[in-house]
Amino acid sequence: MQNHYNLIYREEEREMLPLCADQGIGVIPWSPLARGRLTRDWDTATARSDTDEFGKLLYVDSDRTVVERVGEVAAERGVPRAQVALAWFGGKPGGVAAPIIGATKPEHIDDAIASLDLELTPAEVARLEEPYAPHVTVGFR
User: Fold this and answer.
1) Can you list the domains of the chain with their CATH numbers?
2) What is the pLDDT of residues 80-106, one digit of tens each?
3) Are 63 and 85 in contact (CB under 8 A)?
4) Are 103 and 33 in contact (CB under 8 A)?
5) Mean pLDDT of residues grouped by 10 in the chain (141 residues)?
6) Would the pTM count as exceeding 0.70?
7) Considering only CA atoms, which of 132, 137, 136 is closest in space to residue 65?
8) Ramachandran sector of residue 78 (left: φ over 0; alpha: ψ -120 to 50; beta: rest)
């Protein structure tokens, strides 16, 4: 199953991930870094954030707190935010086989590989997940 799933958008946890786990279906989520939102401060503008009209529909200002939490855990661990956001998948049940990271630079691959060795504590996971707010289902056309 190729689905939209990350720390900011977790609607797949309601039905799709449990179904995939029950049926032995692997999951390869797209946008695990929320179009880069989880890798930088919320207000940081990029060429993509300025021009990505579909991306503007996916995330809302109330998601800022999740992004801030990723930044806090990353700073405490001394690792890039991408590693924290990707490491979060490592502890999730439901058959996440491989997030589609959309690497465009060599350091994106380095962060993805390093995330495999980063084990978040249950307290860190709870801290990252706590500010989540449900979203309208998006990503399907």
Assistant:
1) 11-129 (3.20.20.100)
2) 999 999 999 887 766 688 889 888 899
3) no
4) no
5) 92 90 91 92 73 69 93 98 94 77 91 95 96 80 53
6) yes
7) 132
8) left
